[in-house]
Design brief:
alpha/beta, Signal recognition particle alu RNA binding heterodimer, srp9/1, Rossmann fold, 23 helices, disordered N terminus, binds adenosine-5'-diphosphate, binds zinc ion, membrane
Length: 621
Amino acid sequence: MLNNKNDKDKNNKFDDNKFKYIIYYAIAVTLVVFLINDYVVNNQVKHIKYTEFNTMVQENQIKEVQIASDKIIIYPKEGTKDEGKVLYTGKIAEDEELIERLKKANVPYDGVVVKQDSPIKSFIVNWVLPFLIFMALGRFMFSKIDKKMGSGVMSFGKNTAKIYAESETGVTFKDMAGQEEAKESLVEIVDFLHNPKKYSEIGAKLPKGALLVGPPGTGKTLLAKAVAGEAKVPFFSISGSGFVEMFVGMGAARVRDLFNQAQEKAPCIIFIDEIDAIGKSRDGNLGGNDEREQTLNQLLAEMDGFDSSKGVVILAATNRPEVLDKALLRPGRFDRRVIVDRPDLNGREEILKVHIKGVKMSEDVDLNAVARSTPGAVGADLANIINEAALRAVKNNRKEVIQEDLNEAVEVIIAGKEKRDRILSPKEKRAVAFHEVGHALVAALLTNTDPVHKITIVPRTMGALGYTMQLPTEEKYLITKEEMFDQICVMLGGRAAEEVVLNSISTGASNDIEKATATARSMVTIYGMTEKFDMMGLESTSNRYLDGRPVKNCSAETEAIIDEETLKIIKEAHKKAIDVLTENRELLDKITERLLEKETIMGDEFMAIIKGEEESAQEEE
Ligand code: ADP
Ligand code: ZN
């Protein structure tokens, strides 16, 4: 994931602090050592009076004497009071009988020259050298402790740990394949970071933050880095879980620190990974988590407080946008959403192409085949597959990667993931394809429906396994009864296709059923579209938002009849969907095959297939 440990620039700030610590530490140790040394030396070397010295000579207490140019150094005999110490006394030049007396007392004597060091040299030896030694030792020790504790003890209370700063990410949009939509929506931010003035001069405000939403491994971190790289601005990143500390208040301090650092370096990007770790919705869990709440509040305060015209943009990543606190999504905060979805067939091939750069590949490898065999795989999986294949080639003493390595790698990576991440089995995939084409075909073949924009069986972020998207040709303010009914037919078309083709039904239609039922019900209760109730209002929509539930304006008996009427509409629509699909069984099969092959079909192509079929049918006649 992020936090590339090899980046040289990361942790700049933390290094500065460490360096300061080491200097303080070295000064302290040098002082202490000097004082101890001084104490010991002072205790062992003692000055005595000349007369005392004379007495000692007389009383035969001296082992040896050394006579220097300006002093006399005396070593007392064992058993005397100053045993073990070194005594000294000044030399008195007038005392010419000293030697005589020493001779008489039988004390060995000697002359020495006490060298007087230059002050500079003694300063270096006594102070600078120890200081440097201790500093080197300190560095060594700190690095050990750092490694052992992560960012533990030494940075305690400093809040600088865990923020990773890169002055140049070196990643560009080229390193990010697929995800064209996501890139497009971030181009503006890149431009803004490039030249914040251009925007602030006009008075245009760019969003302070954007939320990158997508499953793990789809390249959210990579995308954020690419934005920084394209704009050539520094990149600060921290993980949401890194904020939440054991101690209340630490996370908030860390947020403050992050924003301070970033603002110094503006324009720049702040990237917060796993923002759901701090941004979880606060309602619902009473009491809650004080630390997380404080951290979240600090983040909100910082986001509101900073001046976006300076060019600080916050990107945050999550794979669970639905749990985020509403406050985070308010205008002026993360009000932009960039979906970073699982790549489709084309995207996967492009991603593979990015990752084979620098890997020696045999000329006949078929990346398209690899892409086809990895539906649902994300960028990180594909990067892994290429690496696994390269490792396998090395293991087999080959100089380049061949197709077999790739196939094997797909097995290793995908089989391992299938259990965890539920990548669809071929059978399931087929069912999903029929289901989606069912929706699309019913939509295309009924008259009162919106045209199909896109059909896809690439698993989506929000739990759906595939989807069919319809876009109205024009803005609509009124919906007719026929249109509503056909909408219900389209919703039920997915399940109908499963029934027609596979003769079995699955759980995949639960959402469709819910929506269809709600629509049918509102036809009965709100819009007065049944004969039975004529234009009688059975539910009021006015106070709906209070608790979200419609208010019933009828008796319990009537409610039972409403249910009957609703069921009647649904049954009718279900039958219509089945009829349409049975009549057009060939088209259903043909489009499903195409969808299985391509995973995503756009509206034009879809309509072209339908038209083609119609024309060939007419020719036959
Ligand atoms: P996320 O932050 O969404 O969990 P990452 O950005 O950490 O995912 O992606 C992990 C790795 O997967 C990236 O470093 C990159 O090698 C690879 N990857 C993911 N998506 C893509 C992509 N669209 N193009 C190229 N590589 C990708
Ligand atoms: Zn459906």
